Amino acid sequence: MRAAVLHEIGQDKLEVLDDVEAVGFGPGKVRIRVRATGLCHSDLSAMSGVLPQPAPFVPGHEGAGEILEVGEGVGHLKAGDRVVVCWLPACGSCPACERGQTELCLAGFMNAGTPNFRRPGGDVFGFAGTGTFAEEVVVDAGCAVPIPDDVPFDIAALIGCGVTTGLGAALNTADLEAGASVAVIGCGGVGISVIQGARLRGAAEIVAVDPVASRREAAVRFGATRAVAPGELPEAKQQITGGEGFDHVFEVVGKAATARTAYDTTRRGGTLVVVGAGAMDDVLQLNMFELFFDEKRILPSLYGGGDVLRSYARTIALWRAGRVDLAGLITHRVPFTEINEALDQMRTGTALRTCIEL
Question: Which residues contact 326 (CB under 8 A, 6 or more apart)?
Answer without folding.
Answer: 155, 158, 159, 163, 315, 319
